[in-house]
Amino acid sequence: MTTQPDSTGRGLVLPGLVLGLGLGGFVDGIVLHQLLEWHHMLSGWYPDTTGAHMRINMVADGLFHLACLLLVTLGLVFLVRSARHLGGPSAARRLSGWMLAGWGVFNLLEGTVDHQVLGVHHVRSGPHQTAFDVAFLVFGALLVLVGLVLALRGRQHSA
């Protein structure tokens, strides 16, 4: 018995969002934590002024990256399970859209909870930290918007 492809794209929503959350976390952790050294996971609570605080931040960053890896792995499991229902050439566009939306959701959640509510760190501490935090949130909102447009247009093209 063959299964008809799912032309609505619903089979890509969960895999795309979970993959986007994990990949968005990796971009944040690798670029902002490691490469630019603008902040670490708990640098708002444990400023990088002592070796002990740096160790706490490094362990927290490592745990954060492990969580991102688990999200990406889970997203891939969901994607493989959905593969038989993807249907049509617009599947890549839909999946890309949901991944961008997931990345944007990560930015919005992390930017709101960690930067604003808990104050565990800012995107870049210093004189313009509020501007960096707001830009991070705006970028997240744009990712969600562009992702949704791609995902929904891909769905229209497959119908």
From TrEMBL:
The keyword Metal-binding does not apply. Keywords: Membrane, Transmembrane, Transmembrane helix. Coiled coil: none annotated. It comes from Thermasporomyces composti. The chain crosses the membrane at residues 12-36, 56-79, 91-109, 129-152. This is Putative membrane protein. It comes from the Bacteria. InterPro entries: DUF2243_membrane.
